[in-house]
Amino acid sequence: MFAAGLVAAHAIPAALVWAVIAAAAVPLPDGIATILALVYALAHGLSETLGLPLRAPGIGWEVPAAWLKGRGRAGRILVWGATLGPGLVTRNPYAGMWFLPLLLATTAADLFLAAAAGALVGLAHGTARAIGILANHRGEGCDLPWRMAVTQMRFRLADGLGLLFAAAVVAVL
Question: What is the extent of the structural domain holding 58?
Answer without folding.
Answer: 2-172
